[in-house]
Every structure is written in structure tokens, then in C-alpha cells.
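A.,

Following up on our hallway conversation. C-alpha cells first:
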């Protein structure tokens, strides 16, 4: 599956920061962070590995 630059950025940030949900106002929820599923963690790890391999070349 191909990921866009934005999707790769979001995956890396979620993987690094960990996850819990945000805060609620009277109008709506503001999601401040999320947690990844096991498949999402694998995808994030692969994105990070690919980025590091590019830096080594």
C-alpha cells in the first residue's frame, strides 16, 4: 500500500507520541492524539525503517 507524505507523517507521530484521546467541548471533540492498531504499528515501523535506510545511502 502506498502512503502519502501526510499519512507517513501521521503514522510516525502516532508511533512516537503514543496515544490517548483528546478533550471535549460543548460543541465537539478535539482529538489530540490517537493509538495505533498492531497493523498500524507495523506500518509505522516500516516507514521509519525506510526513512533511516535512505539516510544511510
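Then the amino acids I'd put at each of the 57 positions:
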Amino acid at each position: 500500500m502506498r502512503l502519502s507524505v501526510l499519512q507517513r507523517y501521521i503514522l510516525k507521530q502516532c508511533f512516537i507520541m503514543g496515544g490517548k484521546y483528546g478533550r471535549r467541548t460543548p460543541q465537539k471533540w478535539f482529538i489530540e492524539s490517537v493509538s495505533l492498531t498492531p497493523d498500524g504499528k507495523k506500518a509505522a515501523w516500516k516507514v521509519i525503517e525506510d526513512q533511516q535506510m535512505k539516510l544511510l545511502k
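The longest strand covers residues 23-24. Curious whether your intuition agrees with the design.

B.
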